[in-house]
């Protein structure tokens, strides 16, 4: 196995959206970067595929809302560089019971951070969105900056940009072994690379790479059913009808969030999904025996029937996606506790895509030993007990 002759500045393992943005920031700062991906691109085996994601400033936590300001700027910059539309503003409608504590917290955060939004009573919602049926006591908040990101186009634009800026994108190369040190060595299925720093953004495969390095993060891989529902009248929940993305907070019959995007990616079909799934081994995500998610689809069906009466209450199309969740659903952005030139980005918990421009920037900063541009306290791995140096 011939070694890479030239020492590069950084290797990024995992070409999902977080790894792509990390490589993009490295390449933009004229660092020699190699982006490794175990599958041939494009693929649908991880968390970053598919056509659409929600973008929003509406979060209960101030730090995410603050990060999103810069994210919007970088998304716009990438869109300009790529010369293709990557984002569409539709607004994001948050629905919940008037007394829902999360809804109240989000509204307070939006107010505090000066984000333009509108609180809508049941009557106002009924007038504005007549094809949304509300239960008694349900109200809404409209985050006007919310919208749709075109996920597959964004990934392609980033991979093209990394190559254009002089980086290498090596797909179909699975990382088999990491040898810590200065330089760090990564052996793949086809060759060996060396770099001053390593960034691991391997999604559900993160712990497989970290275990030989002495740590295991509290990550759970979930398989999510991505469901599309047929409109009874095509376009009735479409962008052309000014229908927004939505996020339902604790609405019956779902104990967890339900979210939806206006129809568009598949004509006449609206994407409505449950923000949860069941544990799965990422190597077995396509096995028929792996959880079918019938219960989640039934919950969604009841929600669609009760709240979105102009959709057929059975899914017309079902795709799959993986979430890699942390116990608190906040990300892990940190250095390895023993090897400070190995940086980890993990646990994006189904809400990391929109934040990836800033996540990639932070991972670049950590790998280059720069002062992080955001407070990383919420993202340190030390918040989980048993992961300190004593564990190594």
TrEMBL record:
A Gene Ontology term for the protein's cellular component: peroxisome
MF (Gene Ontology): flavin adenine dinucleotide binding; L-pipecolate oxidase activity; sarcosine oxidase activity
SUPFAM superfamilies according to UniProt: FAD-linked reductases, C-terminal domain (SSF54373), FAD/NAD(P)-binding domain (SSF51905)
One Pfam family linked to the record: DAO
Keywords from the named record: FAD, Flavoprotein, Oxidoreductase
Entry cofactors: FAD
FAD dependent oxidoreductase domain: residues covered: 9-366
InterPro entries on file: FAD-dep_OxRdtase, FAD/NAD-bd_sf, MTOX
Listed GO biological process terms: L-lysine catabolic process to acetyl-CoA via L-pipecolate
Family: Belongs to the MSOX/MTOX family.
Protein name: SOX oxidase
Organism: Crocuta crocuta
């Amino acid at each position: 196995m011939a070694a890479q002759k030239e020492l590069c500045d950084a290797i990024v393992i995992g070409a999902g959206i977080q790894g792509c943005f990390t490589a993009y920031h490295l390449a933009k700062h004229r660092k020699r970067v190699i982006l490794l991906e175990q599958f041939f691109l494009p693929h649908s085996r991880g968390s970053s595929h598919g056509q659409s994601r929600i973008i929003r400033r509406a979060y209960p936590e101030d730090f995410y809302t603050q990060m999103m300001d810069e994210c919007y700027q970088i998304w716009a910059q990438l869109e300009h560089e790529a010369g293709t539309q990557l984002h569409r503003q539709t607004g994001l409608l948050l629905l919940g019971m008037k007394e829902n504590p999360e809804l109240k917290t989000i509204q307070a955060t939006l107010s505090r951070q000066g984000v333009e939004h509108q609180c809508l009573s049941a009557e106002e919602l009924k007038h504005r969105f007549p094809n949304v049926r509300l239960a008694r006591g349900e109200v809404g908040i409209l985050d006007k900056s919310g919208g749709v990101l075109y996920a597959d186009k964004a990934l392609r634009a980033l991979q093209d940009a990394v190559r254009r800026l002089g980086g290498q994108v090596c797909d179909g190369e699975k990382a088999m072994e990491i040898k810590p040190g200065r330089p760090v060595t990564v052996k793949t299925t086809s060759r060996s690379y060396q770099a001053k720093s390593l960034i691991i953004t391997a999604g559900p495969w993160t712990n497989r790479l970290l275990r030989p390095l002495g740590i295991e993060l509290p990550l759970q891989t979930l398989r999510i059913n991505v469901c599309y529902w047929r409109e009874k009248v095509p376009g009735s929940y479409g962008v052309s009808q000014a229908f927004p993305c939505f996020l339902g907070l604790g609405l019956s019959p779902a104990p967890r969030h339900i979210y939806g995007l206006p129809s568009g990616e598949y004509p006449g079909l609206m994407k409505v999904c449950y923000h949860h799934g069941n544990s799965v081994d990422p190597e077995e995500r396509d096995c028929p025996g792996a959880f079918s998610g019938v219960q989640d689809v039934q919950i969604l069906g009841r929600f669609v029937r009760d709240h979105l009466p102009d959709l057929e209450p059975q899914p017309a199309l079902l795709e799959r996606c993986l979430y890699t969740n942390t116990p608190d659903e906040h990300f892990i952005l940190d250095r390895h506790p023993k090897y400070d030139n190995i940086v980890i980005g993990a646990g994006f918990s189904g809400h990391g895509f929109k934040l990836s421009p800033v996540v990639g920037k932070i991972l670049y900063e950590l790998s280059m030993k720069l002062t992080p541009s955001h407070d990383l306290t919420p993202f340190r791995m030390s918040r989980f007990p048993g992961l300190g140096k004593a564990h190594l």
